[in-house]
Predict the 3D structure of the following.
Amino acid sequence: VHTPGHASNHLCYRHAEANWLVTDELNLAAQIGYLNADYKEFVDESRPSGDRSDDEPPFAPDWTARLAATYTVDLGSNGSLTLGADANYRGKAWLSVDNRDVLTQDDYWLFNALATWTSMDERWNVTAGIKNIGDEVYKTDAQEFSSVGNIQTAYYGDPRTWSLSVGFRY
């Protein structure tokens, strides 16, 4: 199905990152992004008015951010233990071109943590982690087929997820 029309976008993106090695053991990082996205022109000939320039572009949250920290503990002849955590923010975003309310995602935070043991010779490592600690329910993508029975489908991000991995370097 083809919808006649055309669109042109205007994007203004600003991004800042900081990384601070507080000590040899402690590293802090932060990122923030601002996106001002809008349509300069959006003509949809399948709509009565045709002009959709006031619509919001999909997948374009105004703000994104991340805060992270890692701390490494020297265990002497037993290797090292690195503990890490991060928090990720994503502002509200439309997930369909048609700006359907049911296909939006409100702003949300995701929190993750991990612990990695590394052997003294750095050949072995074991990592245990947890993603989405708060078990946040959030949409990552959506599809809207108004011309085919008004089908609306949303896809969700992973729930709280535990992981364990073992690595060996040779």
About this structure: The radius of gyration is 22 Å.
